[in-house]
Each structure stands twice: as structure tokens, then as C-alpha cells.
Amino acid sequence: EVQLAESGGGLVQPGGSLRLSCVHSGFAFVNYVITWFRQAPGKEREAVSGISGGDGVTYYADSVRGRFTISSDNAKNTVYLQMNALEPEDTAVYYCAASLERSASPDEYHYWGQGTQVTVSS
Q1: Is 8:117 a contact under the CB 8 Å cutoff?
Q2: Long-range contact set of residues 45-54: C-beta below 8 Å, sequence gap at least 24
Q3: Per-residue pLDDT tens for 81-94?
Q4: 7, 18, 47, 90: least CB-packed within 10 angstroms?
């Protein structure tokens, strides 16, 4: 069965860094896009960054471009999100999700991890 599992969240000070990991199994990544979403209390879920397993094309939300970097290690079946220069506004639960289509809409994603909490605070 398809499974995704996030890890790497935690508490960090503004300006700090975290690296999130998404370990995936049960599907051929070459046929999918994996996207990181985040959801803060009282706000809608938003796409942060995505990567295509077929051609490596990446997507970044304007709010994180230049600060976050998405990458994949196919030998480890893992997608990473390196987050630098973190801001309090980045505080949210971060999820990874898989879709057969390139999309920034959470409605297009059938498979989700359980989420990992990222808190940016001094």
C-alpha cells in the first residue's frame, strides 16, 4: 500500500533551519509528484514546494522561494525539504502528499503523511 511518513519538525528560532524528510513507499515515484503542504491554525492548507519524480521539475510558493529547497534521494525513497531563514509565519503542520498530476491543490492528492509540527519562535 501507498505510505508516506514525515519527520524532522521541531522548535527553531527565527532565522534558523530545519530539514524535513518524507519517506515514501508503495508506488513508483517516477510516475508521481510529491508536494509539501502546510497548514496553520485558522488558515487553509497551502502548497509549499513540490518535485516531480519523472523529470525533477520543482515548484515553490512565492513565500518560500529562495529560503526553502526541495530535493529527492531516490535510492532512499525520500524527499527532503531544507528550510532556511525560518520566520514565525512558517509555523504550521507540514505534510507531504503524492499525486499523479502536477498540482498545487490539495484536492488532487490522494496520499498523505501524518504531518510534522514546525514551530518558529524566539
Answers
A1: no
A2: 45/95, 45/106, 47/104, 47/105, 47/106, 48/81, 48/94, 49/81, 50/102, 50/104, 51/79, 52/102, 53/28, 53/29, 54/30
A3: 999 999 999 999 99
A4: 7
